[in-house]
Write a structure and sequence with these properties.
The structure is a single chain. With 254 residues, the protein is mostly helical. 61% of the residues lie in helices and 0% in strands. Helix 5 packs antiparallel against helix 6.
Length: 254
């Protein structure tokens, strides 16, 4: 009797173990239909979510600034110091690359650009100090500083240098326009400069300024009135003295 009861309890426990193992295997084999972070049903285990890839995000476009004044210089052009050397034209390709603008610095390119602008406006080959040449040099400097300030807009020192160069160029162009108008037009055309006239003087009319102006006009009129009276007295005195002299001469004749 006791042996039959023991066999029954062993069979029942083995059936329960088989049921639990089948449930665990079915839980592991079933794949979740929804994507995203999820935790498995087995105690003590964690399923890592797949990485999220943002395929729908639009690629950022690079900001393209205005075209530089040095962009028209070809990279095969020789530097200023080697342009007049005949041996530099027949050298090896590697040496030509070293002597050309392909591996040149920004200052060397700027120097060559300055020489190009000077060649457009100079009076003769030996002209280096005329007003036209000074305007060309200032134009290259101003455009270079404008390109620099577009990238570094907080550079106050270079901004001040640019404004000083602009004022200097305005004075030179103003004087050139008054003295030689044909040269002024040629410089503006060759260098691409648009000359604008300075604005007319304008002062805000305040009450104090209006009262001061009215007082000045009143004083000016009073002074003019006094001068007119003095002139009239002088004329009357001269006329009276003239009549007295004439009367004295007439009495002497008698």
């Amino acid at each position: 009797m006791f042996t039959s009861i023991g066999l029954r309890t062993v069979l029942r426990s083995s059936c329960c173990v088989l049921r639990e193992s089948s449930a665990v295997s079915s839980a592991l084999s079933v794949k979740p239909l929804l994507t995203g972070p999820s935790v498995s049903r087995v105690a003590g285990s964690f399923a890592i979510p797949p990485p999220v890839r943002h395929y729908a995000r639009v690629a950022k476009k690079k900001k393209t600034g205005p075209e530089s004044q040095l962009s028209d210089l070809p990279p095969t052009l020789l530097k200023k110091d080697y342009a007049a050397v005949p041996l530099a034209q027949t050298t090896d390709d590697v040496v030509k690359r070293l002597l050309s603008l392909e591996l040149a610095s920004h200052s060397e390119k700027l120097q060559l650009k300055t020489e190009q602008l000077i060649g457009k406006v100079q009076r003769d080959e030996s002209d280096r100090h005329s007003v036209e040449v000074q305007v060309a040099i200032l134009t290259t400097r101003i455009r270079n500083l404008q390109e620099h300030l577009q990238k570094h807009h907080k550079d106050k020192a270079n901004k001040r240098r640019m404004l000083m160069a602009i004022d200097r160029r305005k004075k030179l162009l103003k004087n050139l326009r008054l003295v030689r108008y044909d040269a002024f037009e040629n410089v503006c055309e060759q260098l691409g400069i648009t000359y604008t006239f300075p604005p007319e003087y304008y002062r805000r009319a305040t009450r104090r300024w209006l009262a001061k102006k009215a007082f000045c006009i009143k004083v000016f009129k009073a002074v003019q009135k006094q001068k007119a009276e003095q002139k009239l007295k002088m004329k009357q005195g001269l006329s009276s003295t003239g009549t007295q002299v004439a009367e004295s001469k007439a009495t002497e004749m008698k």
